[in-house]
Each structure stands twice: as C-alpha cells, then as structure tokens.
C-alpha cells in the first residue's frame, strides 16, 4: 500500500475551502485513514505526510496492535527545530506485518545532504536542489516462513531479502529539475544500499547473493506526471542530459557523480522497474479542485515480481453524482487516493543446502 495521508498542517481551509471544516479536522480524518488501512490489510504499508507525533502516538501503536511494526523519518528540517516544533514535521513511514517480514536495516536518504555533497560549487545545485528537505526512507526486510504461505509446497522455504523504499519528492511544478535530480539521487543511493546489503548478507548469513538478487519495491508521492522526466527515468532506466525537465541548466558535472552516463549523454540506472498502475486503470491519484492527476506510484522489480491485482479508482459516477469537485471530502480522507497492489514474488535465492544458500 502507498498512501499520502495529507498531514494536518497542510489541510487548511484556504487550500480546501470546498471541504467542510469538520471533515478537514485531523481527529475526524485520522480515524477514516486508519479504517481504510485496516480494511485493505496490506502486508507492507508506505505512508507519506505523516507528522512525527502522529506516527509515534497514533499510527504506530494502532498498527502494532494489528501485528505490524514500522519505521519513520521526518523531513530534514526537523534536525534544526526544537522538540516541541519537531513533532509537527511530516515525513515518511513504512509498516510491515511482523508475521511475514523481519527488519534487517533501515536507511534514510536526505536529498539536501546529497545535493550539498555533490554540488561542486554549482549555483543551481546549491540554490535550487539543496534547500528542499524531501526524503526517501528504505527498509531492508527479509521474509519469514509465513510470507510463503501461498507458495507451492515443494522445496524448503527461503528468507528472501526485499528492499522497500518510499519517497516524497518536491512538489512545486516550477522545479521539475529538482524532482528529477532528487529521483536520480535516490536511485543512486538505493544501488549503494543494495550493494551494502548483499555484502552484509554474504558475511552474516552465509548467502551467496549479489545486489540484483534483492527484490525491490519503490513507491511514493513523486509529484510528477506520467510524461515527466522522473517517470521516464524510473521506468525506462535512462534520461537524456538535454531532457526539457533539466530546464537547460547544466547539471552534468554533478550527475556524473551520482549516475552512469553513456556515450549518448544519457544517464542510466540498472534497476528493471515497472509501474503497477497505468493511466487507463487509475486516471488520477491526487484529486483536488485545482488539480487532478497521477503523481503517486508503486514500482516493482519486473523480472521477479508480477502484479496479481490492483485497487482501482473511485467510481467517476459516484464522484459526479455526489458533485465532488475535490478531496478531502467527508467520505474521502485525503486529497490522495491510496494505491494497493498484490504482488507475486519469485524467490531469487534458493533455500539452504548443508548450511549454504545459493541464488538463482
């Protein structure tokens, strides 16, 4: 599941004047959001725009009672704040069902820190990319026996590593270059995380494994439409240096530090990702009075995962008949719709033989 829950401080009457104030109230919305999460019962839940206090005092205790554990990080600005201010900073959360997954390690990806480290004194890297304090959060998980309850029974069960990452990319349409750079930095960091994870698993679990054997799910609010450079980069594995989203700003010297560049001046990544949703299934994931479009996504490793089912959109007839011009609404608790995909996973490592684990 991937869901931007619209945190309380952004749910203002100025932004959402079409929604009754009682239905904008967080105490009302949070109950509906939790009911939705419980209704769908996903094994892995990725949330964006979760305030720190709401994670620790509401979502975590409620979901722990349902058999989940979770990790959280606020946006980078929280580091500069007092304790009383920090609790209202929003961030990303990942919950996982403890009967099916164990947490190996969590990773925080801070785009402002990466921008500073790779700026090389470049003005637009320092003035456009670095001030945005968006983050990505990743959890390296391992499956338990219960995760394979629907698998064919022949053969021993495996502890398959899976990297789950959620991100919230910068929102402003005027900063499409920043969105693309943040996404490229994220893919670079995920590659490093996978390399490190494979090395650790080889040494601690005696598994003969490489980074490509660790499956990956990447999701979040990318604030980018399907025809953007961000989505082109993620799905095709490449983006040209002269892509319009770079806004004719020269980022080449920085990008060469965080991405592979081929002879045709295209930057690439090696993940083989597919989007679980297509435009003909989900015409919009964000539905407000001023904007309706697809900006939330779930990507998965297409060579080892197959989507079996998806949660579809709200009925256009229902929206029309009830004259719903935008969300939130008394029956829709965020301006984003939750995304939900059921994925079939093929194990990429084989089960132990004489204490040694191989890989496919």
TrEMBL record:
It holds the Pfam family Exo_endo_phos. The keyword Magnesium applies. It is an enzyme of class 3 (hydrolase). Signal peptide: none annotated. Its cofactor is Mg(2+). It catalyses: Exonucleolytic cleavage of poly(A) to 5'-AMP. Keywords: Cytoplasm, Exonuclease, Hydrolase, Leucine-rich repeat, Magnesium, Metal-binding, Nuclease, Nucleus, Repeat, Transcription, Transcription regulation. It is found in: Cytoplasm; Nucleus. Belongs to the CCR4/nocturin family. This is poly(A)-specific ribonuclease.
């Amino acid at each position: 599941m991937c869901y931007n829950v619209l945190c309380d401080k952004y749910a203002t009457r100025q932004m959402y004047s079409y929604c009754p104030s009682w239905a904008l109230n967080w105490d009302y919305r949070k109950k509906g959001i939790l009911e939705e999460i419980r209704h769908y019962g996903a094994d892995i839940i990725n949330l964006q725009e979760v305030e720190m206090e709401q994670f620790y005092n509401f979502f975590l205790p409620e979901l722990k009672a349902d058999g989940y554990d979770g990790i959280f990080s606020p946006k980078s600005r929280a580091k500069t704040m007092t304790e009383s201010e920090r609790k209202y900073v929003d961030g990303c959360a990942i919950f996982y069902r403890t009967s099916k997954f164990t947490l190996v390690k969590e990773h925080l990806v801070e785009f402002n820190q990466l921008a500073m480290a790779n700026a090389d004194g470049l003005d637009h890297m320092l003035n456009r990319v670095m001030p945005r304090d968006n983050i990505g959060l990743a959890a390296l998980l391992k499956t338990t026996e219960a995760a394979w309850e629907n698998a064919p029974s022949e053969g021993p069960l495996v502890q398959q590593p899976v990297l789950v990452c959620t991100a919230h990319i910068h929102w402003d349409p005027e900063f499409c270059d920043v969105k693309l750079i943040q996404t490229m930095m994220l893919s670079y960091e995920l590659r490093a995380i996978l390399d490190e994870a494979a090395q650790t698993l080889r040494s601690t679990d005696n598994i003969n494994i490489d980074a490509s054997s660790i499956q990956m799910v990447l999701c979040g609010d990318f604030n980018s439409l399907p025809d953007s450079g961000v989505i082109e980069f993620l799905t095709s594995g490449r983006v040209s240096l002269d892509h319009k989203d770079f806004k004719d700003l020269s980022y080449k010297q920085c990008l060469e530090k965080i991405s592979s560049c081929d002879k045709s001046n295209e930057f690439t990544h090696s993940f083989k990702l597919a989007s679980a949703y297509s435009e003909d299934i989900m015409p919009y994931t964000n539905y407000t009075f001023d904007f309706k479009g697809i900006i939330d996504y779930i990507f998965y490793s297409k060579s080892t995962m197959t989507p079996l089912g998806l949660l579809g959109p709200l009925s256009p007839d229902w929206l029309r008949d009830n004259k719903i011009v935008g969300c939130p609404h008394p029956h829709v608790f965020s301006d984003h719709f939750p995304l939900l995909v059921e994925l079939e996973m093929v194990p990429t490592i084989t089960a132990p033989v004489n204490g040694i684990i191989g890989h496919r």
